[in-house]
C-alpha cells in the first residue's frame, strides 16, 4: 500500500497550498521553540484553513508542557499532534484524549513503545533520527528486523532515497522536511513535487 505522506516545517500559507496541491496527505507545523522552522499559531491557523478538508494538519512539539501543547494545537486548528522527546505514557495518553497522536520514537525505543501502544488507534508510532529536522537518514536495513507494521518513518528522507526506504520497510507513512527546502522554513517546489511523485509511484 502507498504510505501516507507528510511534509513538515510549513511556515507560510503559500507553502501550505503548494504542498497540498503537490499531493501531500498531511502538513506539519513546528511549534518547538528550538526549531529553525518555528511557525506562529496565527500563520498555522491561516494555512490550516487554506488546504481544504482532506489534508491533515500536524502540530509538532518538543520539550513543551501539556497545557502549551493543547493550547497551541487548538489555537492553530491542528487535526493531529506529533510528540517528540522523552515523555511519560500519561502525557501521551492525555494528548490522545484530544487528538490523534504521532508519537516519535528513537530506534532503541521502538520495541517498548510499540508494545505499549499496540492496538490503540489513537497513537501511531513514527521512528525518527536522533536529531529531528537534521536531514540524516537512519540505517533502514538494520531496522527491518524490528519494524512494527503501521509505523511511520522520518529522518533524512527526500526524492533521491524515498523509494529505497519504502521498499525496505514498507512504512505506513513517511515524513520529511530538510531535503525539501531551499532554506530552513522555505519549501523547494521541485523537491516537494519530486518527493510526492516518488512516494505515489512506490
Ligand atoms: O525540523 C525541525 O526543526 C524539528 C524540530 C523539532 C522537532 C521536530 C522537527 N522536525 C521533524 O524532523 C523529522 C524529519 O526531519 P528531516 O527530514 O530529517 O529533516 C520530521 O519528523 C519533522 O517533523
From TrEMBL:
Gene3D superfamilies in the record, alphabetically?
Aldolase class I
Residues crossing the lipid bilayer are: none
Reaction(s) this enzyme catalyzes, per UniProt: N-(5-phospho-beta-D-ribosyl)anthranilate = 1-(2-carboxyphenylamino)-1-deoxy-D-ribulose 5-phosphate
* Pathway where it operates: Amino-acid biosynthesis; L-tryptophan biosynthesis; L-tryptophan from chorismate: step 3/5
Q: Which Gene Ontology MF annotations are present? A: isomerase activity
**What CDD domains has UniProt attached to this entry?**
PRAI
Q: Where is the N-(5'phosphoribosyl) anthranilate isomerase (PRAI) domain?
A: 6-197
**EC number(s) from the headed UniProt entry:** 5.3.1.24
Alphabetical UniProt keywords: Amino-acid biosynthesis, Aromatic amino acid biosynthesis, Isomerase, Tryptophan biosynthesis
Please name the InterPro entries in this protein's record: Aldolase_TIM, PRAI_dom, RibuloseP-bd_barrel, TrpF_fam
Instruction: Tell me which family the UniProt entry assigns to this protein.
Output: Belongs to the TrpF family.
Q: What is this protein called?
A: N-(5'-phosphoribosyl)anthranilate isomerase
Q: Which organism is it from?
A: Deinococcus antarcticus
Amino acid at each position: 500500500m502507498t504510505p501516507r505522506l507528510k511534509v513538515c516545517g510549513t511556515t507560510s500559507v503559500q507553502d501550505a497550498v503548494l504542498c497540498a496541491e503537490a499531493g501531500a496527505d498531511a502538513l506539519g507545523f513546528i511549534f518547538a521553540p528550538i526549531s529553525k522552522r518555528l511557525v506562529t499559531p496565527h500563520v498555522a491557523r491561516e494555512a490550516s484553513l487554506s488546504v481544504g478538508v482532506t489534508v491533515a494538519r500536524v502540530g509538532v512539539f518538543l520539550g513543551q508542557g501539556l497545557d502549551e501543547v493543547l493550547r497551541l494545537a487548538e489555537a492553530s486548528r491542528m487535526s493531529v499532534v506529533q510528540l517528540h522527546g522523552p515523555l511519560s505514557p500519561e502525557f501521551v495518553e492525555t494528548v490522545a484524549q484530544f487528538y490523534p497522536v504521532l508519537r516519535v520514537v528513537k530506534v532503541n525505543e521502538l520495541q517498548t513503545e510499540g508494545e505499549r501502544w499496540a492496538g490503540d488507534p489513537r497513537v501511531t508510532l513514527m521512528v525518527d533520527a536522533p536529531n529531528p529536522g537534521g536531514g540524516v537518514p537512519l540505517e533502514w536495513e538494520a531496522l527491518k528486523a524490528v519494524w512494527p507494521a503501521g509505523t511511520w518513518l522520518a529522518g533524512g528522507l527526500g526524492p533521491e532515497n524515498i523509494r529505497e526506504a519504502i521498499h525496505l520497510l514498507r512504512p505506513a507513512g513517511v515524513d520529511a522536511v530538510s531535503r525539501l527546502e531551499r532554506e530552513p522554513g522555505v519549501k523547494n517546489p521541485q523537491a516537494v513535487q519530486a518527493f510526492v511523485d516518488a512516494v505515489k509511484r512506490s
